[in-house]
Amino acid sequence: MRHWSYAKASTNTTKAPWHNWPRRDFLKTFSLALTAIPMRSVWRPQQRGTTHFFSRQKTERPKKIIVIGAGLAGLTAAYELTKAGHEVTILEARNRAGGRVFTVRDFADGLYAECGAEWVESCHDYLLHYIEEFGLSLYRGSFIDTEDEGLQFSPRTRQVHEKLEETAKQIDPFNQQNPSRPDLDKISFYEYLKQIAAPPEMIEQMQRAVSGLMAINIESISALHMMNENALPETRASFRIAGGNDQLPKALAAQLRDRIYYSRPVVKIAYDAAGVRLTFLENGLQQTLAGEHLVIAAPFTCVRKIELSPALSAEKMQAIATLGYGQIMKAPLQFRERFWLQQTGESRKSLQGMIGSVYEASGGQAGQRGLLVAYIPDKSGMEMGSLPAEQRLDKVLAKVSEIHPEAPRYFEGGYVKWWQEDPWAGGTYAYFRPGEVTTIRTIIAKPEGRIHFAGEHTAGWQGYMNGAVESGHRVAREIHEAT
Question: What residue numbers bound the domain in which 461 lies?
Fold first, then answer.
């Protein structure tokens, strides 16, 4: 089932469980129970539908390529181009690889939590390709329907949900150049719900769900963007990578060890028909590097800080300047006992008075201690982020205590990640406002001369780790086949 499908029931109210919504990697707000034993992926990647792996065919003329960004998109592009015989150099502003894949390990007893990208889906062929290649293990996630969670659909609203389902069937989410149903891009998802006569209670529930799913509110996001999300292929199961999701970027970075230069933020890109020349900082001093092709695999929030000489096309510069990114605060809290396992019902609950949830991050990890993560997206995250940094953890614990009164008794410490403050992210995954799916999204992936663009914001699987990897394969193919 998709976002808005409903289950048949004999009562007057029908529930569409949260776990029927497509899962975002950055964070699922839905319940998760992890098995205790890691398992290898049982689905080998297949070249079905929109999956087109780079061939790795050896080049007869190696090209000199520079990649900005050692997130999954940049690492994938660099790895594939290196395999094909090209000379690749990666400049990464951070002191680590992974970008918005961020596993936090500042906890006792070897516990860890994902403060960035979180989920691997069974239909994420690009991602599974590397998980299999590097011999990584997966933990299986199972979703639990609960009596008090989920979207409540009365018979009066079924026609609205059926309308949404019918609309989704008209959408090809991977056709970025010629979007399906361009009329839907003229309005927000909120306006579309009003247009199809969604009742107020349904709009309120959709607001909570979309804020959790997309890290932005229904008034701000294009109706077509939401329908694209709804039209993506379904998943059979969801996973985390055993030992932390950062195991994948670490595995890719290990293969590129001598080609990655950390703490090298790029400050200027100069280019012409012959190639590119980058100016970057090394220990505060400016250095330069020249190449034939450039891959910009950084969020546009970071590209805005780089001087481009000459400027790119007006359309591309507009996209770089205006593309929006959702906002999420994630706060894993450490407790000396997993007290929530003794409770009846489910450990994932909605935060009172906030759009978000609390869920366990330590499932499948050994030990008596455990971690609960408070997930606070969109406007609630902005409200919490407005507090001084030293006050946020206490505030998060107080909110968690509203639904887990015993939490302070077991609390030992925590970590707060507010992605808006991250200088090399400026937010989570991208979203498209009304009017941007048919304009900005159609051009952001297109190369400009010898400059190529990668990242989840450029992919069909937009907003997913799988999309970042997808974009890496696309730019590897563009450069490899360039004359």
Answer: 1-36+48-103+115-210+223-322+430-483
